[in-house]
Amino acid sequence: MKVLALNSSPRIKGQSKTEIMLSALVSGMEDAGAEVEVVHLRTKTVKNCIGCYTCWTKTPGRCIHRDDMAEELLDKFISSDIAVFATPLYHFTMNATMKAFIERTLPVLEPFLEQKGDVTFHPLRSRHPAVVILSVAGFPEMSVFSQLSSHMRFMYRHGLIGEIYRPAAEAMVLGPYTKQREDILAATKEAGTQLVRRMRVSEKTLERIGQPLGDKTVMARAANIFWRTCMRERMTPEELRAKGVVPRPETIDDFVLIMKLAFRPENARGIDATIRFDFTGQQEGSCSLTIHDGAVDGTTTPPDRADLAVKAPFELWMDVVTGRASGADLYLKGAFKAEGDTNLLVRLGEIFGRNA
Q1: Pairing relationship of beta strands 82-88 and 2-7 according to DSSP bridges
Q2: 20, 175, 193, 293: least CB-packed within 10 angstroms?
Q3: What pLDDT digit, counting tens, does each position of 267-291 carry?
Q4: How many CB atoms lie within 10 A of CB 23?
Q5: How distant, in Å, are the alpha carbons of 197, 275, 341, 351 from that of 271?
Q6: Which of 7, 2, 4 is nearest to 32 (CA)?
Q7: pTM of the model as a whole
Q8: Where are the beta strands (DSSP E) in the chain?
Q9: Which of 48-57, 238-247, 344-353 is predicted most confidently?
């Protein structure tokens, strides 16, 4: 079986959640024996269809444009058994790059009008691959894919053999969701295997792929803190991540939330400890983070005993957390106090996402 997997995300590897999901799907397809070619459309030239109908009249089956679509991709599309359309969700449907590709498949049709029942359609000029749609979105609800799903089902009807949607894709890559992410990607790989062997995906597998990650309200709070930080620092999300900047909390509750999301379980192996924070200044109060068995939990009603106790002005510690100030320099200057396991203090940066 030949599969053409088309990725229309403009993001490069490591940034693209579309590519993360597509890679898992392709892995499962290859395990089932399929020959899969992955094409990143960001590297190709696919001009917009200009509606001239040259491909229907003057040069039947051949587009007037001389670009990568006409010279390479259309032939690969026609010769494939399955075409995977992998697109990030833009304005609740596919992005323009994928739409341009699909519109340029017009030469596979003939111009004549035929009818089946009360449906009018153009007949195929040549074979057409079965279609799989894969998409990711930042919103946590599965319902955000409803317009894309409706479009694909109307356009490809019985030729659409799989719909794979992953909401909350941006949050999926965060440390606290490591186990769920592994299950989501394992299920996506299984979906690839099922598509090759059965030409469908089981409902159980789709449920695993689309599983919720957590409280939507908490996710929205975290996202809003992140975006306010991007705006304050005048950075794009990728610039913020590249510099290792942790989104700046504005309250103690937000601090607990952000630290939980910034947690890196792979860097906390063997650590079983409670860290207490006592803040003064604009935000006065206490909280704690407890690391146990590769996970972290937080509370604003901390226990009396802690392995490490940090006492600091809130705004100063937020400067440390977000990289505006060096925790080591401030500690040596006496700007904040730390009691208990100072080795744990030194490791806070690697455990929670940056060098503190």
Answers
A1: parallel
A2: 293
A3: 998 999 999 999 999 899 999 999 9
A4: 19
A5: 44, 11, 12, 10
A6: 2
A7: 0.87
A8: 2-7, 35-40, 82-88, 114-116, 119-121, 130-136, 160-166, 273-280, 285-292, 295-299, 308-313, 337-340
A9: 48-57
